[in-house]
Amino acid sequence: MVFKSIQEDISAFMARDPAARSKLEIVLCYPGFHALVLYRLSSALWRRRFYLLGRFVSHLGRLLTGIEIHPGAKIGKRLVIDHGFGVVIGETSEIGEDVTLYQGVTLGGIAPSVNSQSQVNVKRHPTLKNGVIVGSGGQILGPITVGEGARVGANAVVTKDLAPGVTAVGIPAHGVLPKDRTAAGQFVAYGTPAEGCPDPVLATIENMRGQIAALQDRVHHLEKAEHGTADGDAAGADWAEWRDNEIHEVKVASMGESGRRS
Length: 262
What we know:
By secondary structure, this protein is of the alpha/beta class. The protein has helices spanning 2-16, 23-29, 31-47, 51-65, 200-228, 233-261; strands at 68-69, 74-75, 80-81, 88-89, 94-95, 100-101, 106-108, 127-128, 133-134, 139-141, 145-146, 151-152, 157-158, 167-169, 174-176.
């Protein structure tokens, strides 16, 4: 059973890392694979209530690989930790099958350390469903759930549940769907599509810029018309006509808004 699980882990690395040239290279040179093997051992000790020994094996794995996996975490089959340096997986984390994590990922808790005894055996860390990809530097914090096939972009900070199949980007992270829905289920390195995935923060900024530009045009027109009233009746008439049009538009907009509310 253990040998079969190790074989599946090696095959997963071969499938998802184009730099892997052979299975022997993975066994000898991949810290993510080494961390998984040591985790399987420390987890087996932990489940048999050899808590100190399990933590010690976990600590050795951290020293050797730079990847910290608590032996109490629950990890499914075919997890790939690519590069992996700086990855932290907390005690109550749950990871499904075919998940991919890159360097610097944290599956952490946000509960304060005050009265920590009350938090023993309490769910504090995230759950990652099958097929999740977390890009480098991704931070998933708290007892939240990342849905099946979701992607967490590089350096995103996720603090709320993430629906299946979406991509989370930004700080704090917002879930978005790529323009090409057919590509949503495909593997994407680092969880960040190079094209076709709108940035919700950038979209908000662009919307605000458009509104500010429109307001600047109105103010400029108003100042120009007001200045023209000192030069003659014609300019004053233009100003009055423009003002009346503006008032009419505001009334129409208000009536429309009242209709929608009713």
